[in-house]
């Protein structure tokens, strides 16, 4: 099983899509008083551990990953606006990496499905009829890091002698450059002062989003197995790398996905330093 190309429940990494949609629809002003739970369509949805976040705006809700805020925001946006934003970020579409090699498409609920208030609520914080591949999530965060421009992922072995890169879809706008700048700032706040603090590398800055996705799968003791995500880019102030970590179908990993992200970022910093020093050694 190639996990990077296979589809999994998304969880809260999907909340960046709603944040982008909120700015596109002029709803970035929205604030919500989170009591730890919200009722819709006869169902009760809760924030993690039932934690009440109090009055939060979009930045604070992303920083603390407030489910209730994003459910309320999803009700204002409506299903079609969220779907449009998700598709702009490449979700629901397979990535053709090379001839004969492509990722799963993942799943997006239909607009008709999202007429159901409960389905819309689940979708708004990355659950329900939504699955994504780690590659799609990486491309989504890369679009934010790249000023709002979505680049379809591809594999290039090497470029020599003027050889052209294999033909790929043209880059497309996932969101405006202005929205991308705001999202970059928000995601940096998630690491600097929010629940993604484990992602802070020893060298430089980082930006990203945590995610814990329910699976509906249980172990022998009846405990639900979860998918633990962290996706983001490094360095936050001048992105060079987009990184996604997924630990799937686990109870609780020994090392958080955010901490693994930081380890990868630190390793890349060492590699960059070695590459930078190499010409000086050979001169």
Percent of residues in beta strands? 15-25%
Judged by helices, strands and strand pairing, the structural class is: alpha+beta
Gap between N and C termini: 46 Å
Largest beta-sheet characterization? 3 strands, antiparallel
> How many DSSP-defined strands?
13
SSE string, helix = H, strand = E? Answer: EHEEEEHHHEEHEHEEHEEEH
Kindly report the average pLDDT value: 93
| Spatial ordering of strands, largest sheet | 11-12-13
Principal-axis shape: globular
User: Nearest-angstrom radius of gyration?
Assistant: 19 Å
Helicity range:
25-40%
| Poorly predicted runs | none
How many helices? The count is: 8
Describe this protein's structure.
There is one protein chain. Helix 1 (15-24) packs across helix 3 (67-77), helix 1 (15-24) packs across helix 4 and helix 3 (67-77) crosses helix 5 (117-124). This protein has 283 residues and is an alpha+beta fold. It has helices at 15-24, 58-64, 67-77, 79-88, 117-124, 134-145, 177-193, 257-282, and strands at 8-9, 32-34, 37-40, 43-46, 54-56, 96-98, 101-102, 131-132, 149-150, 172-173, 207-218, 224-234, 241-250. The protein is globular, with a radius of gyration of 19 Å. Helices cover 36% and strands 21% of the residues. Strands 11-12-13 form a three-stranded antiparallel β-sheet, sandwiched between helices. A two-stranded antiparallel sheet has the order 1-8. The chain has eight helices and 13 strands.
């Amino acid at each position: 099983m190639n996990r990077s190309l296979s589809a999994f429940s998304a969880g809260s990494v999907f909340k960046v899509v709603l944040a982008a949609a909120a700015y596109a629809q002029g709803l970035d002003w929205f604030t919500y008083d989170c009591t730890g739970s919200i009722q819709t369509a006869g169902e009760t949805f809760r924030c993690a551990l039932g934690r009440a976040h109090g009055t939060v705006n979009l930045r604070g809700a992303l920083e603390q990953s407030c489910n209730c805020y994003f459910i309320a925001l999803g009700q204002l946006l409506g299903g079609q606006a969220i779907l449009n934003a998700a598709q702009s970020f490449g979700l629901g579409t397979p990535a053709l990496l090379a001839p004969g090699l492509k990722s799963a498409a993942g799943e997006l609920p239909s607009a008709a499905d999202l007429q159901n208030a409960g389905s819309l609520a689940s979708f708004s914080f990355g659950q329900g009829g939504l699955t994504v591949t780690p590659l799609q999530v990486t491309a989504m965060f890369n679009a934010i890091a790249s000023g709002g421009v979505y680049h379809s992922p591809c594999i290039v072995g090497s470029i020599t002698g003027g050889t052209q890169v294999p033909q790929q879809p043209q880059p497309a706008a996932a969101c405006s450059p202005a929205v991308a700048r705001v999202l970059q700032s928000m995601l940096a706040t998630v690491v600097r002062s929010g629940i993604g603090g484990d992602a802070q590398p020893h060298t430089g800055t980082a930006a990203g989003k945590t995610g814990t996705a329910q699976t509906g799968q249980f172990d022998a003791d009846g405990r639900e197995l979860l998918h633990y995500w962290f996706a983001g880019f490094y360095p936050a102030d001048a992105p060079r790398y987009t990184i996604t970590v997924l630990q799937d179908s686990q109870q609780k990993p020994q090392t958080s996905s955010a901490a693994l992200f930081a380890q990868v970022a630190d390793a890349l910093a060492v590699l960059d330093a070695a590459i930078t020093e190499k010409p000086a050694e050979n001169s």
